[in-house]
């Protein structure tokens, strides 16, 4: 099985096909952005982007990543001069982080939301997502600390 992980082509043995993508990312690739929270896809701590869409890695079989592009928190800022995605930068500037455990899912979901906003609403600044947290829309992602 082959897929792109944070822009790098990777290959995994077929014996890992039934493993959850979360465990593959954490144990095989030593990435610690996606976290294990509830194991049932409710909390969102394990969110990764698969072909640009937020997915719960605790529910997704590794085989489902075959031929796709997977981005974790570690790869989200790739291609940006300071190594931070605009949502990550805004997160820091707005002092959003709390304990940090669920931040992975929040940032990854907000980044996907910003991408859609830029594409469909003509937003010029993906960091607008952070500002929207106070007006509704993405309140649970930005302010609530929970999904």
Record keyword descriptors for this entry.
147 residues, five-stranded mixed sheet, 13% strand, single chain, alpha+beta, disordered C terminus
Plain-language structure description:
The chain is α+β, with helices and mostly antiparallel strands and 147 residues long. It contains 5 helices and 5 strands. It has a 5-stranded mixed sheet with strand order 2-1-5-3-4, with helices on one face. β3 and β4 form a beta hairpin. α2 (86-93) packs across α3 (103-121). The chain is globular, with a radius of gyration of 15 Å. It starts with a strand and ends in a 5-residue tail after the last helix. Mean pLDDT is 82; it is low at 133-147.
Provide a quick synopsis of the model.
The protein has 147 residues and is an alpha+beta fold.
Q: Could you say which overall geometry the principal axes of the C-alpha atoms support? A: globular
Q: Determine the fraction of residues in helical runs and give it as a percent range.
A: 25-40%
- Total DSSP E strands: 5
Q: Element order, helices and strands?
A: EEHEEEHHHH
Low-confidence stretches: 133-147
Strand order of the largest sheet: 2-1-5-3-4
Rounded to the nearest angstrom, the radius of gyration is 15 Å
Percent in strands: 5-15%
The chain-level structural class is alpha+beta
End-to-end distance: 31 Å
Mean pLDDT across all residues, rounded? 82
* Sheet with most strands: 5 strands, mixed
Query: What's the tally of helices?
Result: 5
């Amino acid at each position: 099985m082959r897929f792109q992980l944070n822009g790098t082509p990777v290959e995994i043995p077929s014996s890992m096909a039934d493993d959850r993508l979360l465990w593959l990312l954490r144990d095989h690739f030593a990435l610690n952005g996606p976290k294990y929270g509830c194991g049932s896809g409710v909390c969102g701590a394990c969110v990764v982007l698969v072909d640009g869409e937020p997915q719960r890695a605790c529910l997704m079989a590794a085989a489902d990543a075959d031929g796709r592009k997977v981005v974790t928190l570690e790869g989200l800022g790739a291609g940006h001069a300071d190594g931070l995605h605009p949502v990550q930068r805004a997160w820091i500037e707005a002092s959003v982080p709390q304990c940090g455990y669920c931040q992975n899912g929040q940032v990854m979901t907000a980044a996907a939301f910003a991408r859609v906003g830029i594409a469909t609403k003509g937003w010029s600044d993906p960091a607008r997502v952070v500002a929207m947290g106070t007006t509704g829309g993405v309140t649970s992602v930005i302010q609530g600390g929970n999904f």
